[in-house]
Amino acid sequence: MRAIEIHGKIIDSPNNNDINMARLVRITAKTKQTKVTILRLGIVSGQLHLHAKESIIISKAASQSITCPDSWCTRIKYAD
Description:
CATH class: Mainly Beta
Radius of gyration: 12 Å
Low-confidence stretches: none
Distance between the termini: 13 Å
Shape: globular
CATH topology: Jelly Rolls
Largest sheet: 5 strands, antiparallel
Number of strands: 8
């Protein structure tokens, strides 16, 4: 597994948030299952489901935003 660097603060339950124009984002569901929605210019680009306490790292375009209730999101990058 590659090491990651954290680039920013935790964003609690983002709503149409580009996570500071992040390209890589770690998303962790809190205590309930949640749906991650990726948007570009207000149009849904993709969606996925996370179970409670499940984490995932996604790659996105800087212009895409994330809506994910009941989650924590953090901008990251892979360490060199």
